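Appendix B. Chain record.
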Amino acid sequence: MPTPAEVKKALIAAGFEVYRTRGDVVHVAERARENLIMDSGVRVHATEVAVSLVLRAQRTDFPHDPDDDMFERARGLGVAARERGYLEVGTQVTRLPDPSDEERTLDSWFEVSFEKRVAGLDEAMAEVGFALSLEKAASRSS
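Structure tokens predicted for this chain:
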């Protein structure tokens, strides 16, 4: 099993940017706009050598949809991932509070997590490239 430092080194060598490392999980960065790096929801787990990704639907984009439909919108983004061997490993709602009023919610993200265990770092790098190519948030046109 590789260490997080080895995973980070492999990601950088493969041309990816690292957002952060937390424990044995290395978060891959994705540039949303020039000079702005945001967590892409793509991660490499060193301990079990797995690649995970998080896909979401945002309440502000679908204000009248029931919660179950919101999760289905996020799941819909994961069709190609499932076809490639990713398994759904969880769901959660992430509340985005107003920074000036903790009681007020600006948005809620309905997130579905997928994961694929791989044989080693070379396969993990290929999966990171694939995961980064996916649309991460459901849009009104999808």
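Further analysis of this model is presented in Appendix C.
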